[in-house]
Hints:
This protein has helices at 3-21, 28-42, 75-78, and strands at residues 46-48, 80-89, 92-100. By secondary structure, the protein is of the alpha+beta class. It has one domain. The chain has a 3-stranded antiparallel β-sheet with strand order 1-2-3. Strand 2 and strand 3 (92-100) form a beta hairpin. The longest helix has 19 residues, at 3-21.
Amino acid sequence: xxxxxxxxxxxxxxxxxxxxxxxxxxxxxxxxxxxxxxxxxxxxxxxxxxxxxxxxxxxxxxxxxxxxxxxxxxxxxxxxxxxxxxxxxxxxxxxxxxxxxxxxxxxxxx
Length: 110
């Protein structure tokens, strides 16, 4: 599976999860079950941001649009996140993690 298709699949899955999260029918135990399912799928995984931004705290709306102030950054330092913790509370999804820096090595041919 290509990287682009994997990212697209992740984004679609996350948008579906967000739609369910903000549904008025998700209450109490259902919300806890959803939170556990999201943790099982995303915690300790490497995720790619749709658009890379500088900033230690980024906030997005339910459509994935950035709503906090942030400056666009390079993919190599701002595009990847290692998820450490995921929490679902009060109508929002919070994902905590560490940025992953991508480094490419040149290979000498000859």
